[in-house]
Amino acid sequence: MSIYPGVQAGTVEVGAATVRFYDAGVTPDDSTPVVLVHGTGGRAETHFFTLYPMLASRHRVIAIDLSDANSDTDEETAPLSTTGLARQIVELLDRVVAGQKVALVGYSLGAAIAIEVAASRSETIDSLVLLNGWARTDNELRLRLALWERLRDAGDLHSLAEFMTLNVYSRSFLNARSWNDIVQMVASYAVGPGSDRQMALNKTLDVSGRLSHVKSRTLVVGSRFDHLISFSHSLELAGGIQGSVLAELQCGHGSVTERPAEVFRLIDQFVRRIESRSENSSVYEDASLSQLNTFKG
Predict the structure, then answer these.
(1) Residue 87 in contact with residue 116, Cβ under 8 Å?
(2) 279 exposed, middle or buried (CB, 10 Å; 0-12, 13-18, 19+)?
(3) Class of domain 8-135+207-295 (CATH, top level)
(4) How many alpha carbons lie under 13 Å from residue 268 in its C-beta half-sphere?
(5) CB–CB of 240/209 below 8 Å?
(6) For position 71, what pLDDT does the model report?
(7) How much is the pLDDT for 75?
(8) How far is the C-alpha of 166 from the C-alpha of 114, rounded, in Å?
(9) Gap between the Cα atoms of 37 and 28, Å rounded
(10) What dihedral angle (degrees, nearest 10) is formed by the CA atoms of 215, 218, 223, 228?
């Protein structure tokens, strides 16, 4: 893996699942290791190729490639669950950073899995960062996911690529590129590994009941122009986790691609307990439900 010089790759067996991970090595200055969990159809190298090297310059970073094999049942055809995917992370932490607290960062679907881990293993999670995540799939999101599934089943990969490009990136990001660039982006789109089973999980995902069990310091990062997972989902996450901090980015769902430096700064300063302020993002301290109601306007 070329995501960062000297990265050590390894695997952990969890039930029927083989979980691959990439470890940047020794923690600099005894800082908290940062563990990255990708989103639907992603891998460490596809979702964190910009963020990983930035974080690794200051932290030990461990990125996980989730397996879409079941890790909580022997039935190969059984659907994926957030608890089963969370078990992959827990087992990896127990074997790779045993006895250490970590900063757990989950992006998109990875945010829901990170919530499951933090809710059940609060003694292990020093801090939690939820990027462009959601707690419960509502009707609006389910319609988007159903359209993805219909295009996928029909084999119309070109329309599927256009659909994902429209939903993942913001208007400003797309308009900053030439039309030829957009055509190339659409042409290079590929359905990521595990997408079908993970999308099936997304359609019924609900970790809303776990939010009140999260006791770790939590930063929720949402994007104002996220067409796939709207910013209101980030408001709901922050409102449901006691004492959480909410940050708003001016970009689309692909925050790790559109605003990697800003995402890095937010994570780095939150993990190191440095107050964060920037003209490119808004940070709301102690994002209680009463405060969030005023943010909704």
Answers:
(1) no
(2) exposed
(3) alpha beta
(4) 18
(5) no
(6) 67
(7) 62
(8) 26
(9) 21
(10) -30
Q: Which are the contacts of 131, defined by CB distance < 8 A and separation ≥ 6?
A: 105, 106, 107, 108, 110, 111, 221, 255, 256, 263
CA 166, 193, 228: angle at the middle one, nearest 5? Answer: 25
Which DSSP helix (H) or strand (E) runs through 247?
A: strand 245-249
Q: Does residue 282 surpass a pLDDT of 60?
A: no
**pLDDT (0 to 100) of residue 277:** 53
- Cβ 135 vs Cβ 208: under 8 Å: yes
Least confident span in 151-165, 196-210, 282-296: 282-296
Sequence-separated (6 or more) residues with CB below 8 Å from residue 78: 70
3-state secondary structure of 291: helix
The region of weakest confidence among 39-43, 77-81, 120-124 is 77-81
- Collect all residues with Cβ–Cβ distance below 8 Å to 145 and sequence separation of at least 6: 137, 199, 202, 203
* Gap between the Cα atoms of 196 and 4, Å rounded: 29
In sequence order, the 6+-apart residues with CB closer than 8 A to the CB of 219 are 127, 128, 129, 130, 244, 245, 246, 247, 266, 267, 270
Alpha-carbon gap, residue 203 to 259, rounded angstroms: 27
Q: Are 203 and 115 in contact (CB under 8 A)?
A: no
Question: Which two structure tokens, joined as six digits, stand for 162?
Answer: 């256009």
pLDDT reported for residue 28: 65
Q: What would the mean pLDDT of 94-115 be, rounded to a whole number?
A: 96
Strands 125-131 and 102-107: parallel
Q: Distance between CA 206 and CA 247 in Å, rounded?
A: 22
> Residue ranges of the alpha helices (H) in 61-178?
82-96, 109-120, 139-154, 157-168, 171-175
Using the predicted structure, report yes or no on whether residue 295 has a pLDDT greater than 60. no
Provide the CA 76 distance to its chain's centre, in angstroms. 25
The ranges assigned to domains in the chain are 8-135+207-295
